[in-house]
Amino acid sequence: MQLSSSQQRWGAIAAFQAFLSVAAGAFGAHGLKNMVAAHNLEWWQTACQYLMYHSLGSVLAVLLASMSVKFLWSVRLFTCGNILFAGSLALMTLTDIRILGAVTPIGGVLYLAGWLVMLKGFLHTSVPSKS
Prior knowledge:
Layout: H1 5-30, H2 38-64, H3 70-95, H4 104-123
Helix pairs in contact: 1-2, 1-3, 2-3, 3-4
InterPro entries: DUF423 (IPR006696)
Organism: Marinomonas aquimarina
Subcellular location: Membrane
């Protein structure tokens, strides 16, 4: 499979986000435990989980992008969602500035939009017939 330069770039971004999710999860489990309140650790865990889910969704979408440009739009939306959703939760964990929680749902909406765009990509991509 030959990836376009756009697929390579977005694939690298998605892989880096997955790496970041694992690294942040390990840091949360071992480094943050004694630094922040227990309820703040729940925010951190949620951030890491959603970062990984949408990083993996992005990898899938990158691989499918040769069939429809819609799949790359999913990656873009997931990446923006990761920045706003996971990023705001991580910052809330570290700073306890709760107003950052107002940003979190915007990231969630971007996640949902990314999945809807991916759905549209699946529904409107024609498969060549074998003949």
